[in-house]
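Bug #77: duplicate submission created two jobs. Keeping one. Sequence:
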Amino acid sequence: MPGEWSHHDACLILYPHNPKTFRLVRVQEEVINVTRAISKDGEEPVFLLCYNDEQASELKEQIGEEGIRIHTCPSDDTWARDTCPTLVWNSDTKQIEGLDWDFNAYGGPVEGCYWPCDKDQQIAKKVCQDILNVKCHAISIVLEGGSIHTDGEGTLLATEECLLNPNRNPQLPKVTIETTLKGCLGVSKVIWLPHGLDADEDTNGHVDNFCCFVKPGHVLLAWTDDNVNDAENYKRCRVAETVLSSTTDAKYRKLVVHKLGLPPPLYYTKEEAISLSNESAEAVGRVEGEKMAASYVNFYIANKAIILPQFGVPSDSIACDTIQALFPNRKVVGVGSREILLGGGNIHCITQQVPAPCSR
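Kept job's structure:
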């Protein structure tokens, strides 16, 4: 699996349509803003995948921009990172191929965010065959794309909180899961962090909201020095730092740990909780004062830009400066994404890169 900073042929985005997850009008505006930023600033084509032909026709009239390709792809939700294929380089065929992980809506019929998820379970195969025209491999392990992150040189980041959760693969021991990851993704070392970000209960601690590679040998870790208002993350960040600082990557390099400050703790307002419930009687139970798993680590690396979440707080500009220093050759584009966050994820969660065949 190439590092996310390698050249992309395109980006996959699932256009929001599920009122159980989002306030649709507002979140659709944010997703269009993300799409345009990737296409224009990132200089990267975007496949915007719609729920049905009617939605696709409406979007074509609304957008109709060069670089944004609108297709129909039925889905249950909008998390392309988790339900679209994970695209990898086949060193034998010299081609990009897709991995179709087993998807159980983040925990199955009891603990999963939304069940059933029949349409989401078909997305990876459909995208590979009908949109990208690449070979698709069904992988018999429950996994979401947001639960893994690679440096493209043999090292993988994951959290035990997610991948070893009993609601994913209870019959599989850790060694079997790790062996599967190594075989499918072409990695030789998995670095296990104990937990993801506090309050990331929807995904059970996806690593892409907490820690990622920014280049080989360099990781970016969500961070807070607030031991009063964000005490749980204060502990989690330091435990993760200890793990990262005490290991090496697949090429025996000691990791350089960069820190990206978290926004101050963000909570669902009364209006947000009520409006989400009003969107659908089956909406997940968001409650006024419930903490959200807000993190700037949840950004997308486009060909020429970094598309960075913004929450309307003073730390937004600090995060932009931090990311700019780490990616001096890419433009940092901040995009408001609180409405996406209300659904339980952010910009990295709604995107999936299509690496170019020559990216390795």
